[in-house]
Amino acid sequence: MNPIRNSAKAIIIQEGRVLTIRCVSWKDETFFLLPGGGQAPGEDLHAAVRRECREEIGVDVEVGALRLVRDYIAKNHEFADQHANVHQVEFMFECRITSGTVQSGTQPDTGQTGVEWLALATLKDSMLFSKVLRGILLALASASPVAYLGDVN
Predict the structure, then answer these.
(1) What's the CA gap between 98 and 117, in Å, rounded?
(2) CATH assignment at residue 50
(3) For position 150, what pLDDT does the model report?
């Protein structure tokens, strides 16, 4: 099995919407992810989420509270065929845009086709991954818990 990978992600909520990156799957299906990605050696999680936001969505962010922690153990989920040996721990931080214009960044992720604001009120009907976020982000917009989600989809 590969080593466990840390990932730092941004939860950016404004005016009842959450900022996501829009991606296309190997099946040409559109889906959405929170901006963020892998932590580099020698980089703290705050620096990782700031770097990833510049790369993927073209903005600088102020990193706030840690809101969610999720294990992604791929063999337990629907993408097991593509990521069989992946184990990633995702740290999701509340963030605020401090400068820049939201757009596809300078180094978008593979499969990233743009950025999109998704309405919190309709997330349950979206293709936002992980699926558990569809029900949690609306509550997070008005509360301040830190929650360990475990290995959920």
Answers:
(1) 17
(2) 3.90.79.10
(3) 63
Phi-psi bin for 47: left (phi > 0), alpha (psi -120 to 50), beta? Answer: alpha
Task: Round to whole Å and give the CA distance between 46 and 22.
Answer: 23
| Residue 151 lies inside a defined structural domain of this protein | no
The answer to whether 50 touches 61, Cβ cutoff 8 Å, is: yes
Q: How many domains does the chain have?
A: 1
β-sheet with 36-38: strand ranges across:
36-38, 5-11, 87-100, 59-73, 147-151
Residue 89 pairs with which residues in a beta bridge? 6, 71
What secondary structure letter does DSSP report for 4? P
Averages of pLDDT over runs of 10 residues in the chain (153 residues) are 89 95 88 96 96 95 94 77 81 96 79 93 91 85 65 70
For residues 64 and 62, what is the distance between their CA atoms, to the nearest angstrom?
6
Is residue 15 one of the residues assigned to a domain? yes
How confident is the model at residue 111, as a pLDDT? 84
69: which strand partners?
91, 148
Question: Which structural domain, as residue segments, surrounds residue 89?
Answer: 5-142
Contact 109, 22 (CB under 8 A): no
Assigned domain for 149 exists: no
Q: Is residue 147 part of a domain?
A: no
